[in-house]
Amino acid sequence: MRIYFIQVKAQNIKISVFLSTVYFAKIHFLTFLFKITEFLTVPAPTNVEIKSYNLNPQVSWNYPVMSQPPNFTVELKNYEEGKWIEVCTNISQKFCTIFDHVKSPDLSYWARVKATIGQKESPFADSSVFKMCKQGKIGPPKLKVQMKDHQLIIDISHPLIIVEGKEKGVVYDYYEDECSVFSYKVYWKINGSMEASPEYIQIIEEENDHRSCNETQCQLIIQGASFNSEYCVSAEGFSQNSAIWSFKFEKSEELCIKTPSGKEKANKQFHFDLILKHIQRIGEWLNKLWYLMVME
């Protein structure tokens, strides 16, 4: 019985070694086959698409890991001109910024990408059609909220266009067309309760109006703000002609401010009046001193 057990165990070891040898041989064969295939053909990029954030459009794509690092060439075509132009050449990253080549957000654009490994090139892979006004995304605005004379003043700064770390301007009316002109919806809560309907800021020219916008920011003034209350404000953009343009807008974070109580307001006014009286007395004393000096 003992000898039989040893023979069975030895036989199992032989089978295990044999199976391991077959497995590793298969792995080496597949690796060899992959390298031969890679040598003969260069695969095309996949999932080529154009995206835009704050009017900064980019082409991106996917590509498998290769034994040799690939380079990529990106071409762009718009509906108006109808011809392909190179916008990125022999780049190693899997994205291409096309901000300088998109002349109008209302034009349709297509992109295509090919890979190069050594002397061999892949076929081009094409993106779907892209129109910034319909598929672009606009980030949240920045808010500043302050209380002044029973007025809640809300300053809304337009999102910035950042291209490769450099500021190019603001998104509002950058292309000077209807597509890049938009308004804001402003929401606020008073002591945790949302107001019944959002306040809309319309784009208007009058500087003395309480709903005014310019090329850098918009301002909304809420009249009759209450003392000793907490106001929480947020805002998001919206296209004025949403039937044609459909930018996707991100809502800002909620910004809260607590207004002073009536007592705090009275104390501040008292100290202000006191300082003003001291200034007036100093002025009177200086006038008397000046008069005496002149008389002498």
From TrEMBL:
This is Interferon gamma receptor 1. It is a single-pass type I membrane protein. Belongs to the type II cytokine receptor family. One of its GO terms (molecular function) is cytokine receptor activity. Residues 44-136 form the Fibronectin type-III domain. It comes from the Eukaryota. Its main location: membrane. Pfam families: IFNGR1_D2, Tissue_fac. The chain crosses the membrane at residues 12-34.
